Amino acid sequence: MSNIDENELHMDEQVAAPAPYNDHSDSELSDLDETFDEYNAMVDTTQAEAIPLDEDTIATLGKYKKKGNRAASEEEPPKPQKRRRRDRARDDDEQMGEAPVPEIELTEAEKKRRDMDKLMDDAIKTKKKAKRRKTDVDLEKMDDEAVDNLRMKMIEAANADTEAIEAGNPATSKLSMVDEVRDTLGRQNLLNIAVDCGILRGIRRWLEPLPNKTLPAYNVQKLMFEILAKLKPDIVHLRESGIGRIVMFYTKDSRPQRLIKREAEKLVRDWSRPILGRSDDYRSRAIPIADGRSSAPSSQRRKSVDDTKHSALAAPVKDTGRARVMMPQSHSYEVAPVSRLNNVVGPIRPITARGDEFIRKMKAKKAARR
């Protein structure tokens, strides 16, 4: 026990012993105080000698660069430029893609199935690409070729019918192509480019009279005028194709059916408007108005009076006793009558207004008598 107590006392003495006095620390503190005093004095002088900033003082200032910073920048390597997040994400993806993927061991059956699936996927991809290339080739070019082929077939059929009539045989080439022409030009995409591809020349050849001065079949005429009604040719196409002469011929000839003649007259009106500079708006149409006097000359009026006198002196027509049915007649008027309501001031009263007023007066009289 005596030995342990002596050791503990010896350790306590070592811990409690004070550190030796160091003169260097006091000298360093005094140096710091002196530097701070000098810095405060400099700050006071700079604040006292502050110069106001204006345009003149700013113009006199020069450009200064710190040498220390320049030297440091020369010694240090250039900092790498900041890259965008996209580039970082791309690098991460590349790194992830480059990372080797551990292969899973497959059986022979699974390997065969994988190879078969790969072959099927490659075949489907190649077919899709080929199909896209074919569709992207040129649909417009294919449509132009289809219309050109149809036009050439129509001209060949017209020439074949002409040769058949000259040889004394029936003309059936155009009739056999009616369905083909209807199906081809019934497609809207082909109908839009048909005028530019010269389809009007084929239509003109189909509507021309045959060498024996007979018109084409009614089915051919009807189909051609239906197609012409859908087309929108301009003046250049009409002049180059010569279709206007054939359509005008159908308006003047007496052999075409009434429906065909009506369609031809409508086409002539529609095609002549841009040539004459007229609008197709009905409201802008100039309608001639009668002036209220008879337009017939005096000689014709005298002649009509003589005819009435002669008919009065003639023998009466015997009544055959047969019933007669009135047939409706369609009249087309080109001159409008003079309106008599232009000078009327105020609201126009209806025709039944007088009758209503008379009934009202009668009711008032009956009420007064009661």
From TrEMBL:
Belongs to the IWS1 family. It is found in: Nucleus. Gene3D superfamilies: Conserved domain common to transcription factors TFIIS, elongin A, CRSP70. Residues 1-119, 287-317 are annotated as: Disordered. This is Similar to Transcription factor IWS1 acc. no. Q6CGB2. Transcription factor involved in RNA polymerase II transcription regulation. May function in both SPT15/TBP post-recruitment and recruitment steps of transcription. InterPro entries: RNAPII_TF_IWS1, TFIIS/LEDGF_dom_sf, TFIIS_N. GO terms for cellular component: nucleus. It comes from the Eukaryota. It comes from Pyronema omphalodes (strain CBS 100304) (Pyronema confluens).
